[in-house]
Design a protein that fits this description.
It is built from 3 helices and 4 strands, in the order αβαβαββ. It has one domain. A 4-stranded mixed β-sheet has the order 1-2-3-4, with no helix packed on it. The radius of gyration is 13 Å and the shape is globular. Helix 2 crosses helix 3.
């Protein structure tokens, strides 16, 4: 049975926790894409590093870091996931809310 991914939302409980729960519930270890707010507006250096290392371990094809993720966090995470395609939603730019950047 195929399952559709959930729609974008905010990762209040942590993107790592949410991803691990989804893997458990779906019985599928592979994660190809993540979309949503990563709840990293002003993370501590250790939280940002831990999240980056976790995302790196997934070998994502794409990471769509949306609302509640600061530009500084997105740039830092790009260092951990250089092979992923990125779509960075910048809600403060209402005239052009999406900036696409492919790092692959």
């Amino acid at each position: 049975m195929r399952h559709a991914p959930p729609g974008p939302g905010c990762s209040h409980s942590g993107i790592c926790n949410i991803t691990e729960y989804a893997r458990e519930v779906c019985g599928e270890p592979r994660v190809t894409d993540i979309i949503g707010g990563l709840h990293l507006l002003n993370p501590s250096p250790s939280r940002l590093t831990g999240t980056g290392e976790y995302l790196q371990s997934l070998s994502l094809q794409a990471l769509y870091a949306c609302h509640c993720t600061s530009l500084a966090s997105k740039i830092a995470l790009a260092e951990f996931c250089p092979a992923a395609s990125w779509v960075w939603a910048l809600p403060s730019l209402q005239t052009n809310p999406v900036w696409s950047r492919s790092l692959s």
